[in-house]
Amino acid sequence: MRSLLLTVLLVCSSLTSTHAFAEQVNIYSFRQPFLIEPILAEFSKSTGIKTKVIFAKKGLIQRLKREGELSPADIVLTSDFSKLLQLKEEGLSQSFELSHVLNTNIPSQYRDTDNNWLALTKRVRNVYSSKERMGDLSHIRYEDLANKEFSGRICTRSGKHPYNLGLVASMIAHHGEAETEKWLRNVKTNLARKPQGNDRAQVKAIKEGLCDISLGNSYYLGKMLQDPNQVAWANAVNLNFPNQKDRGSHINVSGAVIAKYAPNKQAAQQLLEFLSANQAQNLYAELNMEYPVSPSAKPSTLVQSWGTFKSDSLPLVEIAKNRQLALKLIDKVHFDL
Amino acid sequence: MKVKSNTSPHLAGLIMSTSTAIICLIMLLPIAALIIESTAGGFSSIDSELDTTFNDLADTVLRQYIQNSLTIVSETLFFACLFAIAPAWWCAHYEFSGRKYLQWMMIFPLAIPAYISAYIYTDTLDYAGPIQSSLRAMFHWQSPQDYWFFDIRSHWGASLMLGLALYPYIFLLLRNAFEQRSQSLIEAAQILGASERKIFWTIHIPLARPALAIGCTLVAMESLADYGTVQLFAINTLTTAIYDSWLVYGSLASAAKISCLTLLFVITLVIFEKNSRKKQRHFDSRGGKPCVKVKASRSKVSFIWLICGAIFSLGFIIPVAMLISYCLDYWAANSNSIILIHSQSTFLLALSAAFITVLLAILFNSQQRFQPTPHNQLKLSLSSLGYAIPGTVLAIGILIPLGQLDIWSNHFIQWLGFDKVGLIFSGTGFALILAFVIRFAAISNGSIQAAYKQMPNNLDDASTLLKASKLKTFTHIHLPIMRPAIISAFLLVFIECVKELPASLLLRPFDFETLATYVYQYASDEQLEYAASAALLIILVSLIPILLLSRSQKMQ
After folding, report:
1. ipTM of the complex
2. Cα dihedral B417, B418, B420, B423 in deg (nearest 10)
3. Contact, B159 vs B432, CB < 8 A?
4. Which of A17, A56, A260, A261 is nearest to B396 (CA)?
5. Torsion sign, CA atoms B199, B200, B202, B207
6. Of A15, A33, A160, the CB nearest to B512
7. Full-prediction pTM beyond 0.80?
8. Residue A122: its H or E element
9. Could you tell me which chain B residue has the CA closest to the CA of A207?
């Protein structure tokens, strides 16, 4: 009994928080640690600043909000742009210093006008298609997914996933609510199965012949090619960049903000600059197959082999305005049910 | 604290009653905070008057979500009862070779988080999985239209997974109840010529009903609050609606309304269950001689092993074997020594939380035993509510009051002239342990409540007649009788804490990882294969107390 009590006390005391510690930067991350750890390790190596990460996919913004001015968070890393905007809107971010490094590395359309957020990598919402059954789809447009010819041939993950939500919001931005609703309804009827799994699972389903086309971010193709058990899935599909003849493909970004009450703002600024510089941008490209935002960094050789593409030039902020509406439409057409 | 004079029992009672009231209030704090926050329109980005999220959901998908939730809960209950009742009876009633092992083996599936076995089964059984792929290759089928196969990503599949993961609750509670069955009643029934079947349905089942009811309530609450599993099966339930409202739509008010709907459902369930056995009373059911186990015939033994073996394989062997094969396939990623450190912290955390939770359950239940007032009953029921709330929601509910407490204490400390101390409550293991205690109180409360319900009141009366103090009655009579129940409660809570994901994910301090949160970073990207060894360690850590206990045979 006594030893148990002692254990309880020990555990409680061993879990104490880290707060305002010199030469350290605390990160709240929506991205999985294994994706960013190699990059953070390089940062620590070159600056001597330690990094600490808490990862969750849900609720981090709420945690940040509750912690208020006592929050230990310095940086929040997100995997889509709506969270970046939400952090700014809710007053949870502060402006970074637009240093020469950031100014040259991050093009202006990929950072906030008030310098509250910046993008670090770009990800394209591609259309994957079966090599065997679909032929050349390089001309495809997102709009075409509603066509009758694709009836029972499309697979996708949940409509409410940030990547699909972003796409639907961009459709609203370009075509308006009514037109998008009609489009969504038709895409829904074209689905081979109800939305499920992640982007890889759709490619796997194409390989197995369950469907012929799917929506997915491009870096998954690179990741699957690296995995001996998934390489066959990747080899079964073509990667298409939609809307090349008109507005260009929809892109989403991963990005970062400095938390409003960051105890280590200086270190946080240093980390942002490091993440925007060539070394980190190239690591993002090589390890995660993402497109770097910095014009001087290049995508990995594999990603370059997929060709260049035109991306939708509509500002992310304009697209994000339609996010709530996009959600409502997805529920309205029972997309996930 | 030996109570001797006439006035001090009152004082002791008062202290007990006040302290349980305070604990109960603390346990309700997160729920209260959420309700207050939502009615005050706390979410800054949305004007509460313009917030139509709830109505929008109600107009579109909510009806379907409610229907899905009800389906999942009832089907999960069906499967859990199917897997639990007969084996519990066999283990309690019959003596056969290997019984001692079997009664522990049947609890093993509890050690596997439902989202892990769900991942494994969906991965294996869905259209693109190895089984259907090889069937197609074998019979030259081309498309899903060419043949029929059980659709794992359906409500049946999800319920089956949840049933397999949750049936041990019912099994454990029911087996304890059956073990305490009355020899004299059986003999009386036999003398009157009742068949074995009739004795089972008219004596054993009614006597074990409190345990069965509590087990079913736990399973229902757990399946209602589940998010990870149903999401994997692409089934939208009320929990989905809560998460969507809050974390996607950004409307706390709507999330709170739907949470209240869920709570209402749970409360109705509990009241319905209580009312249905209101007239039942338990008097001394213990015979003079200890209950004897019947020797099972050879064919019966094979039958028992066949059925229990099948349940055990589905619930434990297959998932573990799959994890081992993932582990070997992706050995480089899986041979990461950091997970040993995570196992240690997970173990200590679960140990502390389970200890506190069981202690509180004993406190609440013994108080209700000695003073069975509606007031005490209310405290007991309210302290169990946390189980019905999805983990992430509970975690944020905990952050609200703890964050405030942190702000006050920092102000106070600064006022005293010291430096800020930071988040000493919400940013430390304190928040995590509090979350576990609130979330899993229902399990330990249930287990101990079932034991008390079966403990005849005349034992207490006898003790009172002999002028024993309440404390003495408790330590000399209640505790020894409840021992199996206390051990089960501890086990169940410990295992739940090891597996717990959403609250751990959100409340953990920097540099603190449990095995579950480590597995999640891969599982969330549908790459469980890369964290298979950590998933195996979750199972191993959960099994440690079961193995230790079975070894010392304390529950025999």
Report:
1. 0.80
2. -110
3. no
4. A56
5. positive
6. A15
7. yes
8. strand A118-130
9. B128
For residue range A16-42, what is the model confidence (pLDDT) as tens digits?
444 444 589 999 999 988 889 999 999
Cβ pair B267, B388 in contact under 8 A: no
With beta carbons less than 8 A apart as the criterion, state whether A76 and A257 touch: yes
Residues ≥6 apart with Cβ < 8 Å to B336:
B533
> What is residue A132's three-state secondary structure?
helix
- Best of B124, B235, B352 to substitute, by most chain A Cβ atoms within 10 angstroms, is B352
Is B197 within 8 Å of B39 (Cβ atoms)?
no
Residue A134 exposure: Cα atoms within 13 Å on the Cβ side: 26
Distance CA B34, CA B393 (A): 9
* Closest to B258 in 3D by CA, of B40, B36, B67, B57: B57
Nearest Cα to Cα of residue B106 among B81, B75, B83 = B83
**Chain B residues near residue A33 by CB distance under 8 angstroms:** 521
| Residue-by-residue DSSP string for B100-167 | HHHHHHTTGGGGS-HHHHHHHHHHHHSTTSHHHHHHHHHHT--SGGG-----SSSHHHHHHHHHHHHH
State the burial class of residue B331 (Cβ atoms within 10 Å of its Cβ: 0-12, 13-18, 19+).
exposed
Q: What CA–CA distance (Å, rounded) separates A192 from A153?
A: 5
- Distance, CA of B58 to CA of B64 (rounded, Å): 10
pLDDT above 50: residue A288: yes
Contact B77, B219 (CB under 8 A): yes
How does residue B1 score in pLDDT terms, banded at 50, 70 and 90? very low
Q: For residue A213, list its beta bridge partners.
A: A129, A154
| Enclosing H/E stretch for A215 | strand A213-217
CB of B396 less than 8 A from some CB of A: yes
Going by the DSSP 8-state scheme, the letter that residue B397 receives in this structure is H
* A-chain residues near B430 (CB < 8 A): 12, 15
